[in-house]
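Hi R.,

As promised on Friday, here is the backbone we talked about, encoded as structure tokens. Could you run it through your design pipeline when you get a chance and send me back a sequence?
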């Protein structure tokens, strides 16, 4: 089995390499925000895509603000533990968190959420878009999409797919994929994407939809085999891998996103300071290039109100999705 630390190492080295080339800003005036160390809470384990993004942000902004910016991993409950910590933090801007698509799906899976995604969090900025890669173990006998579909049908539901947890994009894609190809496959959730990936490479599950930042380095190194990508066009990080649409499967182009949120009640001036700094960071060409190499596409310039609209749109979309296609919890 490939050690989990190898997955984390590949991702974290890339992020830190980009951060070292972060742009230099003029220093803020004396007494301006922030006035003490800042925490970025990541609700997934180290090495996950939100963690990679948070470490890049922390390194870049610590130079800008001349304050330590600490990345704190709070994994568990598919991200709810970490996001609850953000929601309950002092609303002064010195604690923020990385929010991602899963958090707009969880309200459809969990009856008693410990926080309200729309009410208890203040959107700051969307930072990146991500797509997924359909992967199998490198030593899997499955060489193509056709073989995956044939084997799933032949084994009558014995094929399994992994995900980083219930409500994660890998879960949503797995369910959508199974319905689209009419295959009866079994969902196996793990504590996070790194754990799911380690289990996939250990042949504990048969296939998985993994975000490009996690999958691309492992595919390029020969540790995984990529069958397709979910993007409308081929990914720059995996140019030889066809899209699902090229394989005749349309409507599965799920686009993930990751952004920064603060506790509700954080002053608008502080939210604006965060937004301005983040937009400056992701506008830097070297940062954009490194994110692209990691499989992340930089988001268009956006303001807090625009990120809030995206979050609300996603909450409504997954509410409707759950009504017509109830999500099965693994």
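Update: got your reply. Pasting your designed sequence below so it's all in one thread:
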């Amino acid at each position: 089995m490939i050690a989990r630390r190898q997955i984390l190492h590949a991702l974290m080295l890339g992020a830190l390499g980009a951060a070292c080339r972060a742009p230099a800003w003029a220093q803020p005036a004396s007494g301006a925000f922030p006035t003490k160390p800042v925490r970025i809470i990541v609700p997934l384990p180290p090495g996950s895509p939100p963690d990679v993004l948070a470490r890049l942000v922390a390194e870049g902004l610590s130079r800008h603000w001349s304050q330590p910016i600490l990345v704190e991993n709070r994994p568990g409950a598919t991200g709810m533990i970490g996001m609850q910590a953000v929601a309950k933090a002092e609303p002064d801007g010195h604690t923020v968190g990385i929010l991602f698509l899963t958090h707009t799906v969880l309200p459809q899976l969990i009856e008693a959420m410990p926080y309200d995604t729309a009410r208890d969090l203040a959107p700051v900025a969307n930072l990146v878009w991500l797509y997924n890669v359909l992967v199998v173990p490198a030593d899997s006998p499955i060489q193509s999409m056709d073989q995956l579909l044939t084997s799933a049908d032949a084994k009558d539901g014995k094929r399994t797919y992994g995900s980083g947890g219930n409500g994660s994009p890998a879960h949503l894609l797995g369910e959508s994929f199974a319905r689209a190809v009419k295959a009866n496959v079994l969902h196996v959730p793990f504590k996070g994407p790194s754990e799911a990936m380690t289990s996939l490479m250990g042949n504990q599950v048969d296939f998985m939809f993994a975000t490009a930042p996690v999958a691309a380095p492992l595919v390029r190194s020969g540790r995984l085999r990529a069958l397709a990508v979910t993007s409308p066009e081929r990914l720059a990080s995996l140019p030889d891998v066809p899209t699902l649409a090229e394989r005749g499967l349309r409507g599965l182009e799920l686009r993930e996103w990751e952004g920064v949120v603060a506790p509700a009640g954080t002053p608008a001036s502080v939210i604006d300071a965060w937004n301005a700094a983040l937009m400056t960071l992701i506008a830097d060409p070297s940062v954009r290039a490194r994110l692209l190499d990691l499989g992340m596409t930089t988001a268009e310039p956006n303001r807090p109100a625009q990120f809030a609209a995206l979050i609300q749109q996603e909450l409504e979309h997954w509410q409707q999705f759950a009504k017509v296609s109830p999500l099965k919890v693994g």
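One thing I noticed while checking it: The CA atoms of residues 16 and 92 lie 27 Å apart.

Thanks again,
M.
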